[in-house]
Amino acid sequence: MSIDPSSAKYLIKAKIKADGTVEKSDVIGAIFGQTEGLMGEELDLRDLQKSARIGRIEVDIVQKKGKSEGTLTLTSALEKVETAIIAAGIESVDRIGPCKAEITIEKVEDIRVVKRRNVIERAKEILTNMIKESREELEDIAEAIRQSVQVEEIVYYGKDHLPAGPNVEKSDAVIIVEGRNDVLNLLKHGIKNAIAVDGTNIPQTIIDLCNEKIATA
User: Fold this and answer.
1) DSSP, res 203
2) Does 109 or 132 have the greater pLDDT score?
3) CATH number of the domain located at residue range(s) 7-115 in this protein
4) How many CA atoms lie within 13 A of 36 on its CB side?
5) Structure confidence by residue, pLDDT tens digits, 21-76
6) DSSP labels for 14-75?
7) Where are the domains of the chain?
8) Reduced to 3 states, what is the DSSP secondary structure of residue 160?
9) What does the pLDDT average to over 86-107?
10) Using CA atoms, how far apart are residues 133 and 128, in angstroms rounded to an integer?
11) What phi and psi, each to the nearest 5 degrees, are found at residue 106?
12) In the chain, pLDDT over 90 holds for what percent of residues?
């Protein structure tokens, strides 16, 4: 029976070294054989696997220059103390097949802590995206309101009804631009004394303003 991943609490990670050529089955056989009766009946590895309190012993091993090296992982649904005993029992294996061997526990990882850390990191990402989207939405709303106000601020000046900022009438100086959009762009920057020619011909309203005020084109 395989351990339910949702019930796993710890992940045992170990390194394997053997003074000879060994296979995965040799490693697993050595662990079961040399730990049998070592840790008591309650922690017999075969029984623990059958009851799904530990997972399968996963072995990855390679042979090089007549020796073998690899890694071992084992999940545990046992409590911390029992898991530590299992890890120590695995580390006690000193022979694999006919070869002298060494299994070194590198780490016993609390799977729940890792999951919790991943949840926290993912939550940070989600929250960051939420804040970013919310900020962009607020900026869009603010921009829409700003543009709406700017449109409302546009007046139509003189007998030619030219698009202009609201301060053209009372300002001593005016800025002459080509069209309504130019007036809007200047309003965005708080410049309210612009007036648009709004065509190819120069209207009389513009001529009169140039005579009355300081005009900049």
Assistant:
1) -
2) 109
3) 3.30.70.3250
4) 7
5) 999 999 999 999 999 999 998 999 999 999 999 999 999 999 999 999 999 999 99
6) EEEEESS---HHHHHHHHHHHHTTTS-GGG-HHHHHHTTSB---EEEEEEETTEEEEEEEEE
7) 7-115, 154-217
8) coil
9) 95
10) 9
11) -90, -40
12) 56
Rounded to a whole number of angstroms, the CA Rg of the chain reads 40
Of 143, 144, 174, which is closest to residue 158 (Cα–Cα)?
A: 174
Report which secondary-structure segment, H or E, holds 214: strand 214-216
The residue type of 2 is: S
C-alpha distances out from residue 213 to 25, 81, 156, 175, 189, Å: 98, 91, 18, 10, 22
Confidence of residue 130 (pLDDT cuts 50, 70, 90): confident
Q: What is the arrangement of strands in the sheet containing 99-110, beginning at the earlier edge strand?
A: 58-64, 67-76, 10-18, 99-110, 95-96
Q: For residue 96, which amino acid is it?
A: I
Question: Look-up: residue for tokens 């694999």?
Answer: 96
- Per the CB < 8 A criterion, the answer to whether 173 and 214 are in contact is yes
User: What is the overall mean pLDDT for the chain?
Assistant: 89
Asked if pLDDT for residue 9 goes beyond 60, the answer is yes
* pLDDT number for residue 215: 87
